[in-house]
Amino acid sequence: MTDATTTFRVAALYQFVSLPDHQALQAPLLELCSGLGIKGTLLIAEEGINGTIAGTAEAIDGFLAALGSDPIYGGRFGAMEIKFSGAVTMPFKRLKVKLRDEIVTLGKPQVDPTRRVGTYVEPEDWNALISDPDVLLIDTRNRFEVEMGSFAGAVDPETRKFSQFPEFVSRTLDPGKHKRVAMFCTGGIRCEKASSYLLAEGFEEVFHLKGGILKYLETVPEEESLWRGECFVFDERIALGHGLVQRPSSDLDPGDAGA
């Protein structure tokens, strides 16, 4: 979103989709974003696309329109999950389009979110779910992010990076005991893989917050919110609060955070 007080539109986006030609998409994406004056980072892999970019509202609209109309992309990005927010100044120094083995690194190649994921829960329904005492609520982000803010009562896996999540599961969780598990992350992408992994490990009922914390903060009124603190974002704004409003946090070091 942008308003009279913001100059740039920030788009946090991802989609799990088969991209066997992902290497051939790197140069066109670089050219497209450069031509529109967009900065930020896009990760592309055979399993999809992930990233956060910023530009004028017209530039971001042009980028999304090109993804839908340019034959090189083949209409494959129609189900992209996108969260918009605003920034007073450009939150990125440069543009990067990187090739990756995974768009979010779990280190479990057998996990395929394009085939099977947990049950999506809309932000409007999230409070009711996590208020159920039979639901185990897990924050899938790393400890730096959790320290900045989380949902009341959420379990902190105390990981430094997402690839440590399977270790937390094997050490702490039991599909025979934990019958209903709900998870959340910043924008939703980590939970796509985390929920797919839990289902593969035998957990029966696995839920995850659709659109992540960002969508919740955008959708749920602050007076009804169960969120406590701020949400770390991967750009120079550092943290956002309810309504996806920038919260200056100059004393925080984002260097310890990771996807």
UniProtKB/TrEMBL annotation:
Domain Rhodanese stretches: 131-225
EC number assigned by the record: 1.14.-.-
Keyword Oxidoreductase: yes
UniProt keyword annotation of Translocase present: no
Xref: PROSITE patterns: RHODANESE_3
Catalyzed reaction equations: uridine(34) in tRNA + AH2 + O2 = 5-hydroxyuridine(34) in tRNA + A + H2O
Key words of the record: Oxidoreductase, tRNA processing
Pfam families cross-referenced by the UniProt entry: Rhodanese, UPF0176_N
Gene3D superfamilies tied to this protein: 3.30.70.100, Rhodanese-like domain (3.40.250.10)
Domain of life: Bacteria
Transmembrane stretches, start-end: none
Entry function: Catalyzes oxygen-dependent 5-hydroxyuridine (ho5U) modification at position 34 in tRNAs.
Family designation: Belongs to the TrhO family.
Name this protein carries in UniProt: tRNA uridine(34) hydroxylase
Native source organism of the sequence: Kaistia dalseonensis
